[in-house]
Fold:
Amino acid sequence: MDGFTACPENGNQNLAGILAHSAHGRCKGDLIRQLKGIMESYSNIQGILGMPLVLNEEQRMLRDSVRDFVKDNANVDHFRKLRDQGNGQPYDADTWASLVELGISGICIPEAHGGLEFGYLAMGAVFEEFGKQLTASPLLSSAVFGASLIELAGTDTQKSKYLPAIASGELTVAVGIEEGSHHAPLYTMLPLVESDAGFILSGRKAFVMDGQSADILIVLARSSGGLGDTEGLTLLLLEKDPAGLQRDNVRMVDSRDYADLVFIDAEVSADSVLGDVGEAFDPLVLSLDRARACLAAEMLGGAQEMFDRTIAYLQERDQFGQKIGSFQALQHRAADMYTELELTRSTVMDALSALDEQRDDISQAVSTAKCRINDTSLHIANEAIQMHGGIGVTDELDIGLFFKRCHVCVNLLGNSGYHSERFAGLNGF
Amino acid sequence: MTEIDYDAFRAETRTWLEDNCPASMRTPPATDRSDNVMGGSKFDFKSEDQRVWLERMAERGWTAPEWPEQYGGGGLDPKQAKILRKEMARLNCRAPLIGHGLWMLGPALLEYGSEEQKLQHLPSIINGSVRWCQGYSEPGAGSDLASLRCKAEDKGDHYLVNGQKCWTSDGDKADWMFCLVRTDDSGPKQQGISFVLFPMDTPGVAVRPVPLLTGESHFCDTFLENVVVPKENLVGKEGEGWTIAKALLVHERNMMSSMDDTMPAPPKSLVEYAIEYVGLNENGRLRDQRLRARMVSQMMNKRALDLTQSRAFEEGMAGVLDMRMTSIFKYAGTENIKDNTALLVDVLGHSGFRWDAEEHYEETQRTAAWMNALSFTIAGGSSEVQLNVIAKRSLELPQQ
Structure:
């Protein structure tokens, strides 16, 4: 597949519309670069109003193009097929290549390193579409989380070596943070022991997103300090799996790619350190927040889709001689979900916007968004199944696929307990 | 869109406010509403500054920034109005005037009133000389407002009105009432309702304040006995009052959804009260885990609500606002205030239930704010009615 269903010649109206804005409208890879140029030439109305909580025209065009693409090429049916094939392929490589060609893998990577620097609101819009269609891809683990760690912690050499390759889709990265069943980056205890050649690693990183399929790995280890310490955290970038590293497949209910990384006296070279030994905390926090905001956007898409499908069902299903959506008991619950979803949407937009504007309340904005989308999507997922009745618990109905993905995402990068705790701490209580 | 230099507008506004807002009008108002300027012939200004501030703002039409200039309004576009609000907030300027005339009747007249009615009533709303009250609910018509029975008989050049209105906010202090009356009871209940205006000193109008949980009585029962209302005081057409009433309810609900902005903020933040009244443990965490969790939820909810109001505004400006979304605000906003005031008294513990304004003014104000907020999720369409509205209008769910 050439993936350029998005070329005007192929009759995609949205892209044609976008390109019509631009003086020289050739497609191939340039979509976002062109959008960005248009965006910059606009007067900045939002500067007057404060923080942008709404997509601008170019971001909307990007969203529409991605929406059209995934609807045709990476939708829920495609995801179901991937799952049913059971051959361990976590995402469709051709589809991913097409998405890369569209430019999405470069959205959050600086221009200086081969990216498009189109911002997090734009990336959030992409993730929301992925969430609606259950599109499986390494976008979060590699082009957001991994790329951000390299950008923020890496040396100039590391940045110029890896970032362009991630942006172009040549390489994918997975990041090993967790060691237990709950998100707890400061509880990292994988010891980094110095040796003649560099370091010896023995221990385990758990539930690593896209850990099976990723070309290279970034691993968080502890060079000094103890449980909960912010100092002494070190990131290692493993270009090749060292002897003594085993990637164990971890099967989860959402049928995505996860791995446990098991290190048994694995020797890694000294130049594997990403940036400086013991200094990973600051780049880690911001990178985690970037990944959380994008994950929240994916979850928002999932929640919106479950909600929309449930409302459609309430409008069509007859019982007791009438549409079940006419029952007030269900109407009030539906209205409540809608209200919650709209409120939560604003917090997700705000978190993405905080990243774009490099505001000083990023952590608070992101924890608010992740906490609220966790609670909102769980609420909607449970109501969606209940309101669909018996068919809601069948594998045949797609709702169950969204339900499972939602529950895994709630725990990824911090459940509501984690983010409530963090929010309270940031507010001094 | 016409070219407006918003930066210049911001600069001029800032200078004008700095020059014209008296220093005492830049201090936080009392938390008990006693510093609110409601206007009207029965209103006593608390200070000369208060009077001057209203006069200066009214002269520019900035008590009603977005109303047309020909009626005395400010003639600002939404973006300018937002800039004005932000600049006022920056200097902590108090609202020069608030009330039903500005929030509700004015917008309704602008949409449905005759030119004569606009010219007669809008200027006196803007300068605060006339205070309005609302005659909607009746003893038998609360959530089911359309079943109202207050009767207006056609007597040629006037209507003769008989009936009873209740929950009339500040009916005893108002100069005029806008009132829903039944001019026809032969058809469906939504038809045959008309929207009329009359002065509160018209013979036959009697008002009785109703004491509430807080002991205050800003709601009244209003009795109407053979009240003569000239036909030129009919707004819109006879029998089309329900349309106006619904439009006006939207204004009321919008107003109530951001009630916070009109209620003076407590002198301390929730977190400050919590640290003072509950205390932190040796790890710097609040001693009460359950209150701590409720505080996090409440603070996030409030943040989400504020952001959603900003988002709706920005979407409106960008031309991508789905109007169906705005029906959540009355419900979400008033539930949020109710939760917030209730949480605050729980944080205060025993002190949150004091009833002793002389010895414990600040704490008693928190108690009163909590009890007052109980009515917010009832007045102007209860939360349950709002959920019906969301289900019907926003979600287009089938009706029984």
Summary: Chain A touches chain B through 46 residues (CB under 8 Å). Chain A has three domains: 57-172, 175-279, 282-426.
